[in-house]
Amino acid sequence: MKIDGIELRRVAMPLKAPFRTSFGVATSRDVLLVRVVTPDAEGWGECVALPEPRYNAEYVDGAAEVLRRFLIPALGRDLAVFKGHRMAKAALETAVLDARLRASGESLGHFLGAERARVPSGVSVGIMDSIPELLDAVEGYLAEGYVRIKLKIEPGWDVAPVRAVRERFGEDLPLQVDANAAYSLSDAPHLAGLDDFGLLLIEQPLADDDLVQHARLAGRVRTPICLDESIDSAAHAAAAITLGACSIVNIKPGRVGGYLEARRIHDLCRAHGVAVWCGGMMETGIGRAANVALAALPGFTLPGDTSGSSRYFATDLTAPFELADGHLAVPAGPGIGVDPEPDVLSEVTVSTEWIPLT
Ligand code: OSB
Ligand code: MG
After folding, report:
1. Cβ-count burial of 260 within 10 angstroms (0-12 exposed, 13-18 middle, 19+ buried)?
2. Which domains does the chain have, with CATH numbers?
3. What is the distance in A from the centroid of ligand 2 to the CA of 228?
4. Which atom of ligand 1 is nearest to the CA of 229?
5. How far is the CA of 171 from the centre of ligand 1 (A)?
6. Does the pLDDT of residue 358 top 90, yes or no?
7. What is the spatial distance between Cα 114 and Cα 130, in angstroms, rounded to a whole number?
């Protein structure tokens, strides 16, 4: 496919409310968008790197730099010669794939092997200043129809919020927690205190490079362990499954280098009877559209962090994703199936950079 050039666009999206995790607080989403321009079609990719390297080693300025300096000039050759930078690679791969699919009229969902027209919506609930505030937030999400709640936890905000949510909303609420690597193996007895609450899973309790310790922890707690930060690739997923480090995998296409690698992890996990679900990185409608397509593959047997646009944004870049009966519809149009609204896009754009390729 001939590519005329690539635009790197930075947009600043205010968040409706601060989102607190064990690694920091976000008040706005600083997004890098990649737009691939070809004679036949344009394609979009959203880079999910955060402003600071706290979730993983990538950060948004670094992603822009590696794209302009190494990845974009090497397009058409093997990008695997450049180590790491999977979020940057994912954004570029998605934009190129989107352009190709738009040119041929095929949806991303169809291309990936989606088998459902809609996916269930879970929501990730940040760490709050108080339990009453948390209960209000959860009540609001349940009223909107979310089918699964994930609570962000950290030392000092774990058993008490889980107990409070269980007491208020009952045993039947699908509930899980995400520690973003905030604990160590010596916390195993404390984490076993979560076993009484019937959680679907505990996500990434220990450090990203601690597969062996996750396997040890799995022997000391009954709650299933799910990995997020530890799984960079299908090879890491295979190692984690072999070691018994997790029994569930959170698949984030950005974290693993794109939708093709995400599908490989899905296929691998499915073959081993390991459940997967689609994570999120507070995407705008551009990234959300592609995630929803992926989440419609048959191995995604747990609800994902595939929330509606209004979870984070008063105004999304695209037509908003809205819950219907607790689900989001998989876009059916060519490519990712959504386009940025020109007025919104120009309103939130901070900078653009054109990299010609001809
Ligand atoms: O660990 O899943 C995570 C957001 C940013 C970085 C890491 C994570 C998250 C979330 C929110 O939990 C997921 C979403 O709603 O997009
Ligand atoms: Mg996580």
Report:
1. middle
2. 5-105+342-356 (3.30.390.10), 110-329 (3.20.20.120)
3. 5
4. 1
5. 24
6. no
7. 40
